[in-house]
Amino acid sequence: MASTPPSRRSFLALSGLTALSLSLTAACGGGESGSGPAADGKVTFAWWNIATTEPGKSLFPQISSAFTATHPDTTIKTTSLENEAFKSKLTATTSSGRLPDVFQTWGGGVLRQQVDAGLVEDLTDVLGWASDLTPVSLQAYQFEGRTYGVPYDVGMVGFWYNKKLFAKAGTTAPPATWAELLEDVKKLKAVGVTPIALAGKEKWPGHYYWAYLAMRVAGLPALQQAATTKDFTGAGFVQAGTRLKELVDLQPFQTGFLGAGYATPGGQAATMGNGKAAMELMGQWGPSVQKDAGADLGADLGFFPFPTVDGGLGQATDVFGGGGGFALRKGAPKEALEFLRFFVLENESKLLASNGYLPVVKGAESQLVDPNRRVVADSLVNATGFQLFLDQAYPPAVGQQVNDSVADLIAGKKTPEQVTKSITEAAKGA
């Protein structure tokens, strides 16, 4: 499963948990659900996740049950929420100064704010098994050399496409440039095929287009610099919106896309999984959600990276994405970190076998057998640059403005210039 022998892992975990028991506060009443050790030595902790679709919907409870079976004095109170509902509830919880003991995080600006508020446990000195994890998987959870989260999945966004529908349109290879993508959209429409499925209602899937186009046109360094200068009004960012408008003007999305959810019945994933659209721009979890919401496209499903833009500064090997991880609230019981070690190290094979996640443990990529997942994994290995989801990389107010403004552009309510102005105003005010 990984390069580190179990005996060494056990030693590292034991030493880490011993340190954790010294560093975490004994009084654990500040978290959700009255968590912490009881007088009789029994421990209860809260675990919030987003496993409402397969494979996590079935797998996460199995892993939790396996842990408590070997830790009879530990009880895990699990709350599983859909992506957007989770974000809303966690935002409200953060505002109250109370976090669950173990909670889903994508790292970046949201986690940074929680860290700065003193709500998140610093795991740097107790995560002895961090060396078992790939550096890219840890990146989103690290600030100034300190680690505040544990990843269980990492990946990138790209186009999942239906080979059969592409063939129907006479397209033999996926597009490598933005111009080719637009031509393929026209070809698909000409034969009565909906080119792209999009969850317009949820907004975050739409921001993938603008973010990738900004990377391809302005270049990854420009995007990173804008995060520092808080100025997104540069020509490259305006051009990203102009390019996206080129796509939107072709009316490539399914009927009713502005009201469509992602994993909901009739939403983006179901439209793609049921063969009613030729493409969706989505992360590594796309196929498993397609299967859960619609049907399994099997051998007809393919993957290609986001195209380059003629004259742009970005490379095809610059990737945009992220993964999933968990963080601990400040003062969480030591059993919470032990659970994360169990979840990630001892269950990596199960996570990979479920076809819903990509490896975070060094050497585990050799277990991947699905060709599409290997393409994604190889793209990450060979990446020349990496950008975390913008609605996670930036402070919440800025990330939300990116999502809102791009959604308005797609809906025809904002111009490319207005998008960059709105994001800049949010960044300067954050």
Structure description:
With 430 residues, this protein is an alpha/beta fold. The protein has helices spanning 6-23, 56-70, 83-95, 108-116, 135-138, 163-168, 178-190, 204-217, 220-229, 235-248, 268-273, 286-293, 334-345, 348-353, 371-381, 390-393, 396-410, 416-429, and strands at 36-37, 43-49, 74-80, 102-105, 142-143, 146-147, 150-156, 158-162, 279-282, 301-304, 318-328, 385-388. Helix 1 (6-23) runs antiparallel to helix 13 (334-345), helix 8 crosses helix 10 (235-248) and helix 8 packs across helix 17 (396-410). The model is unreliable at 1-31 (pLDDT under 50).
Counting DSSP E segments of at least 2 residues, the number of strands comes to: 12
Structural class: alpha/beta
Poorly predicted spans: 1-31
How far apart, in Å, are the first and last alpha carbons? Answer: 43 Å
- Helices and strands, in order, run as HEEHEHEHHEEEEHHHHHHEHEEHHHEHHH
Largest sheet: 7 strands, mixed
What's the helix count?
Answer: 18
Shape: globular
The Cα radius of gyration reads: 22 Å
The proportion of residues forming helix, as a percent range, comes to 40-55%
Mean pLDDT: 89
Strand content: 5-15%
Kindly summarize this structure in a few lines.
This protein is of the alpha/beta class and 430 residues long. It contains 18 helices and twelve strands.
Keywords:
18 helices; 45% helix; seven-stranded mixed β-sheet; 430 residues; alpha/beta; three-stranded antiparallel β-sheet; 14% strand
